[in-house]
User: Which sequence fits this backbone?
């Protein structure tokens, strides 16, 4: 489904996992709203994974999350628990 990530049509507590893959550069300016919305659709113990492999995403992820951004093989990953 295509929709605005800051105003998703999904019900509260729908997903165990939300993955944002190579998109952080494009959503950074709306991150506060998108993070809130991702947490809304997560189940109680859900996790948001932000994954970056492109330099544009990696640079923005490091700026936003600092040491919370961890390398796993060739992927920079941030985990945000609800």
Assistant:
């Amino acid at each position: 489904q295509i929709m605005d990530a800051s105003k998703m049509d999904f019900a509260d507590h729908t997903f165990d996992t939300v993955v944002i893959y190579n998109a952080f550069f494009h959503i950074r300016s709306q991150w506060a709203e998108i993070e809130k919305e991702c947490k809304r659709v997560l189940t109680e113990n859900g996790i948001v994974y932000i994954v970056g492999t492109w330099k544009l995403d990696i640079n923005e992820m490091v700026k936003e999350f600092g040491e919370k951004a961890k390398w796993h093989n060739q992927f920079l990953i941030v985990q945000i628990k609800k």
Summary: The chain is about 30% helix and 35% strand. Strands lie at 15-21, 42-52, 70-72, 75-81. Residues 31-41 form the longest helix (11 residues).
